[in-house]
């Protein structure tokens, strides 16, 4: 059995929902479906954004703000079921509740209505995630959810379930953070002991590199959970690794597919150990799976003679970052110098940080670089294979690109390179050329 999740773009128009229907009905294993609220179209906003505006309106203005959402569902009902009034009961109930409703109730109604609609289109049961997914004290309760989900779904042979929300002890809706329908899909996949979690979106899968910079970038057919984590950190935002923890724990693979190009292979994300033991094969046998990067990091360079002998130097330096709530990305170090790389902060915080490092550590030199880009070269194929870092460095030097830092994690599936923001695109192209991905 498979769990299948469709994102907002897939649920946005009559045509796209008919594609969704065709995809689901083409495979009898696709029996548990999770949906997002309808996404943006050329004329209309994402329903979730419309609902956020509705909830921000004064209580007596909410009905007017909600009217556009209701009209959108009426037109979808008309196009798909031939009956614009199919959701009238549900819409009336929401309209009545609006003046006193809290934000999570209002914002979650897009998924609720979307799932009710698709259940009717497919002839599947509708199961409300408020009855399956549980929050306690504002936090998601995984053990209770798994229990409720297993019981709640066992009664159904097929069902459509709204993504993005669950409920608290009083049955009141509570939402996950934005994009949370991916979590719902993963929870449902685990609860039905799915062989696969299919996540249908509007892109073909994870790419070997950003195609806006490297036009011949291609879709990665097999990716491990560990590689996913590294790529997502560098901004590849097809799927957030935190959003799929239930299937990762249960070792269920995820298949990223494109609703609008359903015959394309997509990206299969698999448990790392199973990949390493040879259960899955990648079509391309390359040491590097992907290269990804992000601009806009700051790097604080500090040097001080005899720094390496000064006990507590590092602790005091990092404490300055902690004091200003700055999260640290990398700390490449020499003998008497070190650089701390972190995401850009505002000027006031940066100045306060420099002052505090000067006061605490009395360095000989201190310099804040405000234009650093990080590039990650990722792949299990480089483990125990000498020369990957050397190739990357000499390729950059041949392209006349100054390397500001290099860092290889202990996992050995990732080499991080720092270059200036201005060199970022050229570096990505050069590294792609070197590793031919
Ligand atoms: N509709 C919600 C959002 O826009 C949840 C989701 O689509 O995953 O964030």
Provide structural commentary.
This protein is of the alpha/beta class. The chain folds into 2 domains: 2-276, Carbamate kinase (3-Layer(aba) Sandwich), CATH 3.40.1160.10; 290-435, 2-Layer Sandwich (VC0802-like), CATH 3.30.2130. It contains 14 helices and 18 strands. It has helices spanning 14-25, 47-56, 62-81, 88-97, 103-122, 142-154, 181-191, 225-233, 245-249, 272-276, 313-323, 347-361, 388-398, 424-435, and strands at 2-6, 30-35, 125-126, 135-136, 139-140, 159-162, 165-167, 173-175, 196-201, 222-224, 254-258, 267-270, 290-303, 328-330, 337-343, 365-378, 405-408, 414-420. The strands form 4 sheets. An 8-stranded mixed sheet has the order 3-6-2-1-9-11-12-10, with helices on both faces. Helix 6 packs across helix 7 (181-191) and helix 11 (313-323) packs antiparallel against helix 12 (347-361). The radius of gyration is 25 Å and the shape is globular. The two termini are 34 Å apart. Residues 7-8, 36-37, 46, 48, 110, 163-164, 178-181 line the site of aspartic acid.
Would you kindly provide a brief summary of this structure?
The protein has 437 residues and is α/β, with parallel strands linked by helices. It has helices at 14-25, 47-56, 62-81, 88-97, 103-122, 142-154, 181-191, 225-233, 245-249, 272-276, 313-323, 347-361, 388-398, 424-435; strands spanning 2-6, 30-35, 125-126, 135-136, 139-140, 159-162, 165-167, 173-175, 196-201, 222-224, 254-258, 267-270, 290-303, 328-330, 337-343, 365-378, 405-408, 414-420.
């Amino acid at each position: 059995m498979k769990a299948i999740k469709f994102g907002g773009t897939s649920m946005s128009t009559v045509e796209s929902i008919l594609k969704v229907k065709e995809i689901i009905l083409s495979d009898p294993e696709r029996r548990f479906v999770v949906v997002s609220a309808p996404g943006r179209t050329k004329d209309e906003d994402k329903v979730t954004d419309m609902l956020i505006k509705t909830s921000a309106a004064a209580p007596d203005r909410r009905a007017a703000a909600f009217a556009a959402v209701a009209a959108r569902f009426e037109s979808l009902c008309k196009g798909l079921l031939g009956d614009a009034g199919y959701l009238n009961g549900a819409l009336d109930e929401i309209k009545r509740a609006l003046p006193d409703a809290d934000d999570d109730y209002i914002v979650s109604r897009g998924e609720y209505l979307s799932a009710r609609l698709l259940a009717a289109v497919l002839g599947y049961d509708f199961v409300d995630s408020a009855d399956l997914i549980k929050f306690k004290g504002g936090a998601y309760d995984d053990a209770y959810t798994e229990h409720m989900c297993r019981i709640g779904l066992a009664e159904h042979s097929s069902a459509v379930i709204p993504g993005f929300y669950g409920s608290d002890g009083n049955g009141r809706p509570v939402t996950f953070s934005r994009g949370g329908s991916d979590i719902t899909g993963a929870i449902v996949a685990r609860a039905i002991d799915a062989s696969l979690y299919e996540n249908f979106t509007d892109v073909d899968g994870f790419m070997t590199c950003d195609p806006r910079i490297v036009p011949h970038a291609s879709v990665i057919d097999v990716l491990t959970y560990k590689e996913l984590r590294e790529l997502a950190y560098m901004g590849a935002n097809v799927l957030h690794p935190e959003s799929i923890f239930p299937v990762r724990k249960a070792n269920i693979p995820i298949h990223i597919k494109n609703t609008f190009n359903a015959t394309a292979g997509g990206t299969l994300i698999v448990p790392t150990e199973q990949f390493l033991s040879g259960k899955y094969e990648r079509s391309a046998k390359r040491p590097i799976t992907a290269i990804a990067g992000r601009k806009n990091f700051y790097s604080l360079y500090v040097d001080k003679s005899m720094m390496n002998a000064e006990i507590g130097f590092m602790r005091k330096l990092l404490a300055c970052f902690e004091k200003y709530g700055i999260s640290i990305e990398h700390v490449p170090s020499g003998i008497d110098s070190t650089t701390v790389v972190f995401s850009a902060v505002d000027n006031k915080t940066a100045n306060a940080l420099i002052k505090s490092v000067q006061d605490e550590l009395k360095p000989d030199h201190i310099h804040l670089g405000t234009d650093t880009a990080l590039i990650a070269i990722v792949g299990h194929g480089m483990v125990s294979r000498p020369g990957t870092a050397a190739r990357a460095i000499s390729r950059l030097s041949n392209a006349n690109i100054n390397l500001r830092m290099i860092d290889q994690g202990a996992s050995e599936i990732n080499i991080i390179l720092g270059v200036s923001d201005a060199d970022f695109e050229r570096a990505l192209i050069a590294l792609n050329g070197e590793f031919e991905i």
